[in-house]
Structures are given as structure tokens and as C-alpha cells.
Amino acid sequence: MDGIVADALGLPTRRGCEGPGTPAERTEAFWASAAAEQEPGETRAAWRSQGHSLIRTVSFAGGGAAELDVPYGPFTLPLRDSFLDRAFECWVHAGDIAEAVHYPYAPPAAGHLHHMIDLAARHLPATIAHRRRTGLSGPPRTLVAAGTPGRTLHLEIEGDGGGHWHIPLDSPAALPSPDEEVAHVALDALEFCRLAAGHVPPEEAAAGQLGDREAIRDVLRATASLSRL
Predict the structure, then answer these.
(1) Phi–psi pair at 32, nearest 5 degrees
(2) DSSP calls for 162-189
(3) Per-residue pLDDT tens listing for the chain (229 residues)
(4) Which of 81, 88, 112, 143 could form an SS bridge with 108, CB 3.0 to 4.6 Å?
């Protein structure tokens, strides 16, 4: 994943991670390369060095770097969002390691966690639309013109870093509107992040749910599908 951002910034890519492709394709290519046979310490040192280069480069890049788009195969992210995505991935996987070795590991600060949750929530409309095109979500109930209010799910994230998001259900181009709300889902902030990381099945997410059951199911499943591997 860091190699994708490095490519976009014109930095050298880690050996074994070269070339275009989706995150899954690049991961498979790395696993098949000689670099995958490195000792764990070598892998960690190479990753940390690359991470420092990414942060150092962006820190001195000036305001123009914010306009850069990072390609992830079928979609792109603005550079700022790609670093938010990176922060989320680093936190989640560091938490996996900490749990495995029984090491205390606190969640991010509330402000940082809010930005990560917001990134996931902003991607839900397009994710639902993509899943609908592949038959994984129910059909749209109401077709509305772009920029006009449509059916909406109210996503309430509780706890530190939480907030309220209104998710358009039938088209990413529709405007979410509290007046068009057909369902309400309430989730703890950390539980939502675990769902977005693919660490909990959507059917088992501890959620308060009210309203259209299909809409709720589509949003919870779309959240779980944000995990790439």
C-alpha cells in the first residue's frame, strides 16, 4: 500500500512492490517475489524507511501536493485521504499485533479517529453503488436527478471521534437529506472501525437499528467491504 503512494510521489518503490495494479495484485506480486523471503527485521526496517520518506516528502512538498490523486486500481484517492487511509491501516494492524502479544495499545486521539471514520463514511455511497452493479446490494428504490434529495440512512457513530453522517442510498450523486431518512444505524466508533477493517462480520456488528432493513444491511455490508484484502 505504501508503494502505491510512493509511486504517486515519484519515490523509489520497495523491491518486490514495483509496477501498477490493485492493492491485492501488488500484494500477491510481493508475496511471490524474493523480497518476501527477507527476515522480519529487514522487512520492518525497509517499511519504516519508506514510511519516513513518504512523510518527509509530503511535509516539504508545499500546497500543490494536496491536488495529487493516488491511483488504487479501480479508484483514486486525494493524497490527503490516502494518508488518512494509511493511518487507519497502520493503527488497525498495529492493534492486531498488540493483541497477539498482549501489549497495551490505545486507540487514536478522538480528532484523528473522527477523520478516519469520516473517510470511511464518505466512501459508502460509491461503495454501495459498486456493490449494486455487481449484484451484492439491493436495487435502488427511487431514482432521483443528480444533486436532488434521495433516500437517506442516518449513520450515528457514538463515543470518541464519533458524529453523524447521512448516507445517500440510491445514487452517490443524490443529496442526503434528513427529510428523506428511511433508516437509522447507531454504532460505537471502535466497532465501526472494526467493521470497516473487516474484523467483524456485518451481521455481528453491535448496532442500534431502526427503519428499512435492506438499507441497513446494504450499508453495514458496504462498510465491511471497505477492507481490501
Answers:
(1) -85, -5
(2) -EEEEEESS-TTSBP-GGGEEEEEEEEH
(3) 888 899 888 888 766 666 667 788 888 888 888 777 888 898 889 889 999 999 999 988 776 777 889 988 778 899 999 999 999 999 999 999 999 999 999 999 999 999 999 999 999 999 999 999 999 988 888 888 889 999 999 999 999 999 999 999 999 999 999 999 999 999 999 999 999 999 999 999 888 999 999 999 999 999 999 986 5
(4) 112
Strand order in the sheet with 181-188: 163-168, 152-158, 181-188, 207-211
Non-local (6+) Cβ contacts of 227 within 8 A are: 196, 197, 198
Angstrom distance (rounded) from CA 172 to CA 76: 16
Per the confidence metrics, is the pTM higher than 0.70? Answer: yes
Positive or negative, the Cα torsion across 217, 218, 223, 225? Answer: positive
Query: What are the structural domains of the chain?
Result: 2-78 (no CATH), 110-224 (3.30.1050)
* Paired residues of 156 in beta bridges: 164, 186
